[in-house]
Amino acid sequence: MTMTIWQGVITIVAVVIGTMLTRFLPFIVFPESKQPPRIVEYLGAVLPYAMTGLLVVYALRNTPITTGSHGVPELAACVVLVALHYWKRNMLLSIAGGTIVYMLLVQLVF
Amino acid sequence: MVTGQSPIDQSGHALTGNPIPDSTIHNADRRIAADTHTIPDPSSVADDGRSGRGSVQQTHSACWAALKAAFPLTIPICLGFLFLGASYGILMGTKGFSFIWPMCMSAFIFAGSMEFVTVNLLLSAFNPIAAFLLALMVNARHLFYGLSMLKSFKGLGWKRPYLIFGMCDETFAINSTAKIPKDIDRGWFYWWVTACNQSYWVAGATVGGLIGSHLPFNTEGLEFVLTALFLVIFLDQWLSNAHREHLAAMIGVLSSLACLVIFGADDFMIPSMAVMLVAFIVLRPHLDILKPNTESAANDDAVSSSSNSGIEHEKEMKA
């Protein structure tokens, strides 16, 4: 470590403040006691659907499409997961199935 | 507990052995029976006599019932966080930090990707302002999480600051989409999801910092468990909603895919959020039909959030 301990602590505190600002800001700007504007309520109703979509893309953002495995393990695992979920609708089963397929493929095949 | 049960079934079981007012028992039982075809346990009615025994006991059992409903949903996150947290702790260990550092950073920063970034910050020149700004940018997506949970976190008292503090991606994904049964205390449910997830992450990071890189089995690929979690939640939303919610979900997927192609994996988050925001504002006349759900949720404190009420409402319609 190149910094002193206190410089390290200050850096971490800065990161904590930055992170917490992004989490608390909406709740500070639109406090519990006041009714938020209609458009904010509308965004609050539609954003969860969109943010879940964004998180799926975010989680798969480093999939190598043109190099290495060409994303075959990811694709196969997602197909297995979707099929399992359509079939059984069991969250834990689908997650376990997809993850095991992915682990087997990256460890044994690619 | 792990196998063979959907989250709804689990919550259904959590119903039994828990004092609840008469009126909600009938409603909740009818709804759960319609949803999952489970037969309501008669003991839930027998337990009803306890409900008058003072508020401390009630709080206690509400807390316990919420844990039983919340914990199964966090199991995949437990796997993913122990693993990712451990790899983060190991990484810090290899850079010469004692386990105290990953332990404190995972507890206080509690934003996975930012903690990995902070390791590099600690190894470069001292610049707290740059660290602060970088944290703002990397975590900008939390702003949208907050907007989404404004209504759900309303009226939760002392639990609220911790729920906001601990709202990482995975916790948000569960809390914003979970179908919380009406007899489960919503504040405690959110609290347990948040607390379980954070404890997995801190435990993983601490253990990783302590043991270094001597893991007993080959864990390559285990990180996919969190990708799988997001995909399953996405699918669940897709399968239980109508075309307007599908459109909202597609806006999320398409805007982030387009920005991923244009800006690359490291810089696509903020542009995607901007595109999403513009798309939602432009399409508001078409999408704002979600409005009735939002308003019914505002009138009914028992309903956890607008999206939940929408889902539950539709389920009732189908049944």
UniProtKB/TrEMBL annotation, chain A:
Quick check: keyword ATP-binding in the entry?
Answer: no
Entry keywords, A to Z: Membrane, Transmembrane, Transmembrane helix
The transmembrane residues are 6-30, 42-61, 67-84, 91-109
Q: Which Pfam families match?
A: AzlD (PF05437)
Q: What is this protein called?
A: Branched-chain amino acid permease
Q: Which organism is it from?
A: Bifidobacterium olomucense
Keyword Membrane in record: yes
Q: Could you name the domain of life of the organism this protein comes from?
A: Bacteria
Automatic annotation (TrEMBL), chain B:
| Biological-process GO terms, alphabetical | L-valine transmembrane transport
Q: What's in the keyword line of the UniProt record?
A: Cell membrane, Membrane, Transmembrane, Transmembrane helix, Transport
Q: Identify the domain of life.
A: Bacteria
Q: Where is the composition biased (Low complexity)?
A: 297-309
Q: Does the keyword Flavoprotein apply?
A: no
Where in or outside the cell is it found?
A: Cell membrane
The principal localisation class reads membrane
Q: Name one GO cellular component term.
A: plasma membrane
Topology relative to the membrane: Multi-pass membrane protein
Protein name, entry field: Branched-chain amino acid ABC transporter permease
User: Which species is this record about?
Assistant: Bifidobacterium olomucense
